[in-house]
Write a structure and sequence with these properties.
about 325 residues, MetI-like fold, globular
């Protein structure tokens, strides 16, 4: 197990290298420079060149990249040009809302998806199965931001049950914290629930046709016990993979929903940084998100052995 973890950690290095090169080049070849944004449209070319020299943006790209990577090895993500603080501090200030939203959305997705997937598999070929799959297909087709706007209009504006937008930290109380996250959580969780539902149904159908399920039924075991204890447990590995991927997607892909609901998470941070050409923040956030996504996948791999003892990650 330890050898497997070390191997996966070392495999992270080339991934981060490719991501760092790609995002660095993409940002620096995009029109618009931080110095011009900072000084405004009335700034002269001499003033812009002087600020670029002060910030180090007049250096060749390879030299700027090596300087940035050298700081990374020291644990320094750089400093924000506009916020006047280290990038690591800016990320820590904005990661809390994003993680809270992602966790709530994942919980909502699992509450919806797992029962629906099991019922659809058990009732395969019936109107119940077709109805649930139709709903899941509709959930996959609706964009999260469109669903979010609809929820804002109906629940927030018309019914006034929940706040339309904004954010309150957990320190102000759990219910107050959740009130501002329920609508965006439903917007994101519903889309992920559709995918998990279809995977749960597919995985359950494969297991329900195996001989040990027929044996369990022939022994007279309760049908729900057969479904949950025997079938679902053996069908859980593919479902766990999708859960890990969807959670990584929720952490990395909530940019639009955070903007709509005015949640000060990583999505809002990176959007503001792109508008201001704050290179250090963009690079730091993208790199940090990549590390989180790969870490989540690693944790899912490690959970395989706990969920199914037949899986041994240290085997060649």
């Amino acid at each position: 197990m330890l050898a497997y973890i070390i191997k996966r950690l070392f495999s992270l290095i080339p991934v981060l290298l490719v991501v760092s090169i790609a995002i660095f080049l993409l940002i620096h070849i995009t029109p618009g420079k931080p110095a011009a944004v900072m000084l405004g449209m009335e700034a002269s070319e001499q003033e812009i060149d002087a600020l670029n020299e002060e910030l180090g943006f007049n250096l060749p790209l390879y030299e700027q990249y090596t300087n940035w990577v050298g700081k990374l090895f020291k644990g320094d993500l750089g400093d924000s040009i506009f916020m006047h603080q280290p990038v690591s501090e800016a990320i820590m200030e904005h990661i809390g809302p994003t993680l809270s939203l992602a966790i709530l959305a994942q919980i909502i997705a699992l509450i919806i998806a797992i029962p629906f997937g099991i019922i659809a598999a058990y009732k395969r070929g019936t109107i119940t199965d077709y109805s649930l799959m139709g709903v899941s297909l509709l959930g996959m087709a609706i964009p999260s931001f469109l669903l979010g706007l609809f929820l804002m209009l109906v629940i927030g504006v018309k019914l006034q049950w929940l706040p339309v937008a904004g954010y309150e930290p957990l320190s102000n109380g759990l219910w107050t914290h959740l009130q501002y996250l329920i609508l965006p959580g439903i917007s994101l969780g519903t889309i992920q629930a559709a995918l998990i539902t279809r995977m749960t149904r597919s995985s359950m159908l494969e297991v329900l046709n195996l001989n040990f399920i027929k044996t369990a039924r022939s022994k007279g075991l309760n049908e729900w016990k057969v479904l949950l204890k025997h079938a679902f447990r053996n069908a859980f590995l593919p479902i766990l993979t999708v859960i890990g991927q969807t959670f990584g997607t929720l952490v990395t892909g909530a940019v639009v929903v955070e903007s709509i609901f005015n949640i000060p998470g990583l999505g809002q941070l990176i959007l503001n940084s792109i508008a201001r050409r704050d290179f250090a923040v963009i690079q730091g956030v993208v790199l940090s998100v990549t590390v989180m996504y790969v870490t989540i996948n690693l944790l899912v791999d490690l959970l395989y052995g706990a969920v199914d003892p037949r899986v041994r990650l240290d085997r060649k």
